[in-house]
Amino acid sequence: MNEVLAQKRVALIAAARGAMDTAYAPYSGFHVGAALLFDDGAIITGANFENASYGLSLCAETVACSIAAHAGRRGGLLAVAVLGGKDGAVDAAISPCGRCRQVLNELAGLGRTDPLVLCVGANEVVEMPLSVLLPNAFGPANLA
Q1: CA-to-CA distance for 125 and 122, rounded, in angstroms?
Q2: What is the C-alpha to C-alpha distance for residues 142 and 139, in angstroms, rounded to an integer?
Q3: Catalytic: 127?
Q4: Which among 61, 106, 124, 127 is annotated as catalytic?
């Protein structure tokens, strides 16, 4: 495990939990928080933001990646923590949806990293590299 991640793992999960509390989920009631850890120790969070036109809703991971990009982050993504649950109660571990996996892959690709994804549940944390969640990912090299 990367030294920065080893030192910040608890803080990363806590940041995702805190972000979940800011979710806007009036339709599904399913609140999600995500936190991104960068190699300089910075943590950037996001929460889901639903829309009455369901397809326009934003996932927590996508919000966090957008905030990171807006802050000028173009590399160094080490880890992602994601958690969520109905009415803000965390039960089973959840993983990023397919769209979020692709968005995370794009951000990770800018720094040529394979971030560890922490899928946080009430009683467990399932950890795996993004490349395991999104094998044979589509990226910039496919457009060349």
Answers
A1: 8
A2: 6
A3: no
A4: 61
* Measured distance between the N- and C-terminal CA atoms of the chain, rounded to whole angstroms: 33
Query: Domain locations in the chain?
Result: 3-138
Q: How far is CA 108 from CA 23, 28, 68, 81, 139, in A?
A: 24, 29, 11, 14, 10
Q: What pLDDT, in 10s, does the model give residues 29-88?
A: 999 999 999 999 999 999 999 999 999 999 999 999 999 999 999 999 999 999 999 998
Q: pTM of this prediction? A: 0.95
Q: Which CATH superfamily includes the segment(s) 3-138?
A: Cytidine Deaminase, domain 2 (3.40.140.10)
CA separation for the pair 44, 71 (Å, rounded): 10
Question: Is residue 79 classed as helix, strand or coil in its secondary structure?
Answer: strand
Using the predicted structure, report yes or no on whether residue 9 has a pLDDT greater than 90: yes
DSSP assignment, residue 6?
Answer: H
Residue 93's pLDDT is 97
For residue 41, count other CB atoms closer than 10 A to its CB. 13
